[in-house]
Amino acid sequence: MKVWGQWTYLYRAVDKFGNTIDFYLSLTRNAKAAKRFLGKALNGLKDWETPRVINTDKAPTYGIAIAQLKAEGRCPDELVHRQVKYLNNVVEADHGKLKQLIKPVRGFKMLKTAYATIKGFKVIRALRKGQAAIFNLTRDIRGEARIVERAFGIGQSVLAEAVEMLAQNLQGQTA
């Protein structure tokens, strides 16, 4: 995609079910950018979510980045990196849907606005795929609006909402 007329690289991580884990925008496609992205994506995962296998395209930068992350202890040593042509089809399918949304935008002026727009697209896609259903406490459109508010840091926290809902339920039971 283009930002201010320059090609920018969009790194994406999805799980085996096609659910988005993370994304990263970079002006370069080198080992440093790949390491930053993979470190960011792996850092946000719980221990039980840590992947055993990572499938990537044939770019040699991923191998270098994974080796460096293993050496630093930020990536499990038993992690297998596979660079087979068709194994990253899940990522490419996710990329195709994103490109359909980005194409009408016709490029971005700043990296910051590109990131915010793509983040918005990802939140809406996660809602459509049912990826965020566990966080929708009320199971309605208000719950989805709260998820969007939290994704962009403009709403209450999940804990505050849960406490508020429990307090309302307790008041309703005692009345």
UniProtKB/TrEMBL annotation:
Pfam families: DDE_Tnp_IS240 (PF13610)
Protein name: Transposase-like protein
InterPro entries to which the protein is assigned, alphabetical: DDE_dom (IPR032874), IS_Transposase (IPR052183), Transpos_IS6 (IPR047930)
UniProt record, GO biological process: DNA recombination; transposition
Source organism phylogeny: Bacteria, Pseudomonadati, Pseudomonadota, Alphaproteobacteria, Hyphomicrobiales
Keywords: DNA recombination, DNA-binding, Transposition
Domain DDE: 2-131
One annotated GO molecular function: DNA binding
